[in-house]
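Exercise 7.
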Amino acid sequence: MSLSQVALSIAESPTLRLNEEARLLRERGEPVIHLGIGEPKNKAPISAILSSAAKLSSGDVKYVPTDGLPSLKKAIVRYTEDQYNRIVEPRNIIVSEGAKQSLFNILFTLCNPQDEVIVLAPYWVSYPEIIKMIGAIPVIVTPENGRFLPGFYEIEQAISSYTKAIILNSPNNPSGVIYPEDFLSRIVDLCEKKDIYLICDDIYHKLVFDGNIASPAYQFSNKDVENTKIIVVNGVAKLYGMTGFRIGWVVASKKMVEVMTNVQSQTTTCVSPVMQSAAEGALTGMQSIVESLRLTMQNNRDVLMQELSAFSDVRVTKPEGTFYALPDFRAYLRGSVAKNSIELSNFLLKKTMVVTVPGKEFGMEGHLRISFAGTVKNITEGIERMKWALDPNAPSEIYIGDRKLVRDWL
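Solution. The predicted structure, written as tokens, is:
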């Protein structure tokens, strides 16, 4: 069988693969704890449910405009004005099947084959693969200082005559770090001076903790949406816990939206009007659910930090937002346990039934991404199992489900 080399070169999504592994383990009755999944446990907002149910009950579920329902786009216009202090028009917005498709549409619209897109590590796993899918080249900038914030000089050095865009994700998946305002200001200035697009993945922008604020890149540009190099991606998946509704959007210049609409018309045609109605209901309904979710995630973050502090040799940067942490487990990459983060993640799944995501997938070898989007019980029990498996100072016996296990590998 002769298959596309481009398709064969695209890596499998590790997070989706782990989701499937966890599902299969649960179906077999295994007491698996999923600390890798990127979705909150809350129910979708009632305003979203009622809005989508009304659309579905009408029976009028047909083709809709490729760039989105006019009523949803008006809600996004208001959201953009409220959250970004930017006046935009409906023609500056395109609604897509989730933020992932939004990113694909942007990059497909911007990049020619062999163009370069700068990706800041740690990065979301899909960025490099989407870039490769459209024939462009991901240029990874990894911090040299051991932190999760690349130096500005490192970014400048990565720019070439082929650089088309920089992708920025703050608060950051997987580290939970919020990029400082002075860093954002310099990046915006750099992009506008060098005619480079700045793609801002703002999907977690309101899930921030301890009074922190994820400042929008727009704040550091005096240009309007038609002339700035800033492109914003957002959606309802994370802020409202509506991951399965698959609604994301892009705010960009009218010309860009026009081209992206043409691209989308030749791929998915349009987004389900039932799902769009749900997103509209979420955006126009009571917003207390976002604050409730934020407070829950902040409490879960605090529980995770407390549990990780009992590990002898784990170092972790306290997440300032999202619902992820990226602890450094390099001290445990030794002996027969594991030699890298992929082996370590597999080891923990086999020995403890705890799902984590290898840091290698995010450009940070030796780390594991741990999600605290689940329950407090899962967080505490999951970290307890991990300590039992890795930390010589932890008790050598543990009950997982109804089985008593004895650690015999340390």
